Amino acid sequence: MVTLFMVSLTGFFIFAYLDLARAQRNIEARSQAWNAALAMAEAGIEEALSQVNPGVSVLTIDRSANGWGTSGGGFYGPVARTLPNGSYGAVISSDTFPFLYATGYVSVPSIPAIISRTLRVGTTNAPLFSAVLAAKHNINMGGNNIFTDSFNSANTNQSDNGRYPFLYPSRASTNGDVASVSGLVNVGNSDINGQLLLGPTGSDNVSSNGKVTGGITNDFNYEFEDVVMPQTNWFQPFVTNSMPIGTNNYQYVFGPGLPYPNNGGNYIVDNLNGNLYISNVNVTLKLTGSATPGVIWVAGSGTTAGKLTIYMDGPSFKVNGSSVVDGGLAASLCYYGTTNNTSITFGGNASFTGTIYAPEATLTQSGGGSSTYDFVGAAVLSSANINGHFSFHYDESLATTGPKRGYLPVSWTEL
Question: What b/e readout covers 17-42, taking b as 16+ CB neighbours within 10 angstroms?
Fold first, then answer.
């Protein structure tokens, strides 16, 4: 009897120990699945973010593309994916600023059970241009009397009928920010009427005669996404070479019907070396070779004003002498440089009114000194080297009505 009792007691303890080990294993497996389910849900959020961020310069985001389907019940999707460690399902709301929902699933065979976790992420549409001059790397403001400031083309009290108010200095403002993610910003003797925004590894050099009115921060964050070329049919424009408008002859002229040789649309030009005129139509140009334009003039006003969008697929874009690149309003002339575009040069008294997004290009400016509109709008570049007397005027309306760089998360909630 004693032997039987001892054997039974030993067996009970062995059983209890094995049951405890099994329970511990199941708890650990469930805990691992719980964590893995969150990773699956985050993978679904990442795919949804990719869907609503197809790339810079894509003007219309098609939420139904890539298998997400048409909107039903206020949502696009669901899209379901199976991965080696689990699966997820994701949907995108049809709101102006979409909410992204994703549920991650992980199976625990030893219980058995399927663990799920659901996330909701809110978004906002971030502007492509939030500073007058932003770069990945170095910005060298080595000239004399360089300064930045801002105005608002959408506000008559902060502009001159939409233009920079050089005749009304009191209408200008101090949001002419300059930014760099990882380079040295050599302010030197320049006056930055705004903030100097630096990334965590960025640095600055401000001389005793330089000024940064808005202070210096080290938390600037920006994704320099590559430019996406539109998938469309490109046509060869009719060349005039001698059509006189005002005091200039134009190589290419675009307008609504006769007498204009070209209407609005999408055109491809191999080598641009003359003047452009756009009146009351929307024109998109794909430039495949190096470009040395003279005058680029976007005319018209109000709701029928012209608009020019340039996709620079060649290596260099160079404006010499006293040439003018003028979109009228900054938002009316949009320049996008692809990964092939590595150089943008403005020489002499050349002036520019518009926006430039060329994250692989170096902007070089030399000369300046007499132009009122040296640079009006905003630019995003790889780096910038400025020598001469230049002024940079940021159009604050670009932050609200200008091009967007995509939807960014602003809230994260587990449901």
Answer: eeeeeeeeeeeebbeebeebbbebbb
